[in-house]
Write a structure and sequence with these properties.
This protein folds into two domains: 147 residues, Rossmann fold, CATH 3.40.50; 267 residues, Aldolase class I (TIM Barrel, Alpha-Beta Barrel). The protein has 14 helices and 15 strands. The strands form three sheets. A seven-stranded mixed sheet has the order 2-1-3-4-5-6-7, sandwiched between helices. It is globular and about 65 Å long. Bound molecules: cobalamin and iron/sulfur cluster. The site of iron/sulfur cluster has 9 residues, from helix 6. Cobalamin (B12) binds next to helix 1, strand 3, strand 4, helix 3 and helix 5.
Length: 440
């Protein structure tokens, strides 16, 4: 069979302060998978992040180009696709959470050859093998009448241990500042995803749409092999990017010895409803330095509205337990949620003031495609701007849902400003939240 050339392109990120922050793990993952499962292709990753004249970096004679895009990268994805379409005969493939939520719109507005819907490893393998597109599950494409066709989703890979862990040998880790956040026993840190999916349905998140309520874990044996491989590069500090890393206590129990004997350190996000005394003891024992709790809000009314499936009381209990064992607590706080009132924001402010939180990570709610609010905005009294390229999608105040057109709106904005002022004073993550401009 003829060998095919695939070029995987890591896009610039208009809203990241440091462009080449961490390794392009998604693309490394795809490359490792393809090279381990097929013999008919060459795969090259090209990182366009932070490169001014990225056009000069892309060879034009590849058979396939693979792009991965988050919502904030859709505009630049379009520029890259346009560039390639003018100059190369290679087929252009795009994947990621955004295009999975909007396959038809992506075909219409970006005009790639193929959209990958969902988990991509098996799909790209089938594309490269030359199989007819009509027979490949999990893609959108145009047929010979130029009609957009969306095939059924491909079933998820049952046992994710069959996906080899990403091989990072070709990369110079010193080029990625986000990997150099040091800890005493580690030269670098790395972000790993050790499970796929989430059983929850928070309305501000697209996990439910992407993973269709499933959750699969890598085994402890798989992870131990991966950690040992990574340690050979001086990586002994792990940031688990999973949504539910610590949920599987039995797996963690099996990992403890490996962490302890290698003096590893690690941290992860955690849901407050999963925190138990036994779990936190295990975490501490195995080198967990800090966790990030998805608090989002200090109001039970808002937590219920968000379908977060936890409570303020559970947040408090989790924080107390973590502090008892000496694990530092970061919290994610979401600003600008729809249907907030002066009272609910005040509850969040009180929560933040009174809880022994070490660090606040603040973000403005953005209605990413795939989440319930994006697809049902009127239900949440929310306006979504019709912008096919999502050009201004990430600019903070654009999506702040409360307009200062009424007394009530003004009161909400004033309370929001108080909360922001408090958080900014306490946070090291001082992104510019200038909602005060909206107040009359
Ligand atoms: C690690 C991570 C980061 C890291 C590193 C990102 C990076 N460049 O690698 C950092 C911290 C930098 C980051 C930043 C942000 N992130 Co982030 N991040 C993640 C996280 C936790 C893991 C990503 C990952 O490695 N997954 C594992 C890989 C294997 O899965 P995957 O990336 O989805 O890829 C699979 C498929 O999507 C598909 N696929 C994807 N691309 C392609 C391309 C081709 C060619 C093919 C064939 C297949 C394919 O196949 C892959 C394998 O199955 C995910 C959540 C999650 N659990 O996935 C969020 C997530 C991707 N991030 C998200 C967001 C919103 C952001 C931010 C905008 C957050 C913010 N408020 O600032 C920023 C913006 C970044 C930017 N580029 O502009 C959203 C994306 C939503 C969207 N609609 O785009 C996610 C899904 C979280 C969520 N549920 O809301 N993020
Ligand atoms: S916010 Fe976290 S818990 Fe909620 S659906 Fe998304 S990944 Fe799952």
């Amino acid at each position: 069979m003829e060998r095919k050339n695939l070029i995987l392109l890591q896009l610039p990120s208009p809203y990241l302060l440091v462009q080449k922050w961490v390794l392009p793990m998604t693309l490394i993952n795809i490359k490792t998978y393809l090279l381990s499962k097929t013999y008919n292709c060459n795969v090259k990753i090209i990182n366009l992040a932070g490169v001014k004249n990225w056009q000069n970096l892309i060879p034009l004679d590849a058979d396939y180009y693979g792009i991965s895009a988050f919502t904030p990268q859709i505009k630049v994805a379009k520029q890259v696709i346009d560039f390639l379409k003018e100059r190369s005969k290679g087929k252009i493939i795009i994947g990621g959470h955004h295009v999975t939520a909007l396959p038809v719109e992506t075909m219409e507005n970006l005009d790639p050859d193929i959209v990958i819907i969902g988990e991509g490893e098996e799909i790209i393998k089938e594309i490269i093998s030359g199989k007819d597109l009509s027979e490949i599950m999990g893609i959108a494409y145009r047929d010979n009448k130029n009609q957009i066709i969306v095939n059924d989703r491909m079933p998820f890979i049952k046992d994710i241990d069959n996906i080899p862990f990403p091989k990072i040998d070709e990369f110079n880790l010193d080029e990625y500042p986000g990997m150099k956040l040091l800890s005493p026993n580690s030269k670098y840190q790395i972000g790993l995803v050790t499970s796929r999916g989430c059983p929850h349905k928070c309305i501000f998140c697209d996990a439910n749409n992407f993973w269709m309520n499933t959750l699969r874990y890598h085994s402890a044996d798989y992870l131990i092999e991966q950690f040992n491989y990574l340690r050979s590069f001086g990586i002994n500090n792990f940031r688990f990017d999973d949504d539910n890393f610590a949920l599987k206590t039995k797996r963690l129990e099996k990992l403890v010895d490996n962490f302890v004997s290698n003096k590893s350190t690690w941290h992860c996000p955690i849901r407050s409803d999963t925190v138990t005394d036994n779990l936190v003891r295990l975490m501490k024992e195995s080198g967990c330095t800090h966790v990030s709790i998805g608090v989002e809000t200090g109001s039970d009314k808002m937590l219920k509205l968000l379908k977060k499936a936890t409570t303020v009381e559970k947040h408090k209990q989790a924080i107390a337990l973590l502090k008892k064992y000496g694990i530092k607590v970061d919290t994610y706080i979401l600003l600008g949620l729809p249907l907030e009132t002066e009272e609910t924001i005040n509850e969040t402010l009180e929560f933040c003031k009174t809880q022994p939180i070490d660090h606040f990570d603040i973000a403005t709610f953005v209605p990413f495609p795939g989440n319930e609010i994006y697809h049902n905005p009127s239900k949440y009294n929310f306006d979504i701007e019709n912008d096919p390229l999502f050009s201004n999608f990430y600019t903070k105040s654009n999506y702040f849902p409360v307009k200062s057109v009424s007394e009530e709106g003004n009161r909400v904005l004033k309370m929001q400003t108080k909360l922001i002022e408090f958080l900014l004073e306490r946070s090291t993550n001082k992104r510019a939240f200038n909602f005060s401009n909206n107040i009359k």
